Amino acid sequence: MKKTVCLSVCLSVCLSVCLAGWLAGWLAVRLAVWLAGWLAGWLAGWLAGWLAGWLSGWLAVRLAVRLAGWLAVWLAGWLAGWLAGWLAGWLAGWLAGWLAGWLAGWLAGWLAGWLAGWLAGWLAGWLAGWLAGWLAGWLAGWLAGWLAGWLAGRLASWLAGWLKMFLFFNLFNNFFVAEIKVSADISI
Predict the structure, then answer these.
(1) Where are the transmembrane segments (predicted)?
(2) CA 137, 14, 3: angle at the middle one, nearest 5?
(3) Would residue 133 be called left, alpha or beta, if left means φ above 0 and alpha means ψ between -120 and 50 degrees?
(4) First-to-last C-alpha distance (Å) of the chain
C-alpha cells in the first residue's frame, strides 16, 4: 500500500513539474518570438518605408519642381510614403511574427506534451508489468514450493510406513519360521 501511495505521489509530482515546465517554456517562447518578430518587422517596415518615401519624394520633387514648388512636393511625398510604408511594414511584420510565434509555441508545446505523456505512460506500464510479473512469479514459486514440499512429505510418510510394515512383517515371519523349526526339531 505504501509503495502504491509513493508511486502515485511521485507520478503526480513529475506530471505537475512537467506541466509547469511546459507551460512556462511555451509562454516564454511565444513572448520571445512575438517580440522579436514585432521588433524586426517594425524596424524593417520603418526603414523600408522611410527609404521608399524618401526616394519617391525625392523623385516626385525632381519631376514636379517646375510645377508646384520643390519643398511642398518633397514634404508631401515623404510624409505619405513614410506613413504608408510604416503601416504596411508594421502590419506585415506583426502578422508574420504572430504566425511564427504561434506555430513555434504550438509545436514546442505539442512535442513537450507528447514526450511527457509517452514517458509517463511507458513508466507506468513498465512499473505495472514489473509488479504483475513479480507477483505472478512469487505466487507461482510459492505454490510450486508448497506443492513439492507437500508431495515430498506425503511420499516420505508413505515410504516410512511401508518400510515399517515391511520390517515388522519380515521380523515376524523370521521369528515365526524359527519357532516352527525349533518346535519341529524338538518333536522329532
Answers:
(1) 36-55, 67-89, 95-120, 127-149, 155-172
(2) 35
(3) alpha
(4) 87
Q: What is the pLDDT along the chain (188 residues), one digit of tens a residue?
A: 666 777 777 777 788 788 888 888 889 998 999 999 999 999 998 999 889 888 887 786 677 666 666 677 678 888 999 999 999 999 999 999 999 999 999 999 999 999 999 999 999 999 999 999 999 999 999 999 999 999 999 999 999 888 888 877 777 666 665 555 555 555 55
- Looking at residue 146, its amino acid is W
Q: Which of 106, 110, 123, 107 is nearest to 15 (CA)?
A: 123
Tell me which H or E stretch contains 84: helix 70-187
How many CB atoms sit inside 10 A of residue 53's CB?
20
Please give the single-letter amino acid code of residue 60: A
Q: Copy the grid coordinates of residue 75.
A: 514634404
- Distance, in Å, from the CA atom of 115 to the CA atom of 12, rounded to the nearest integer, reads 16
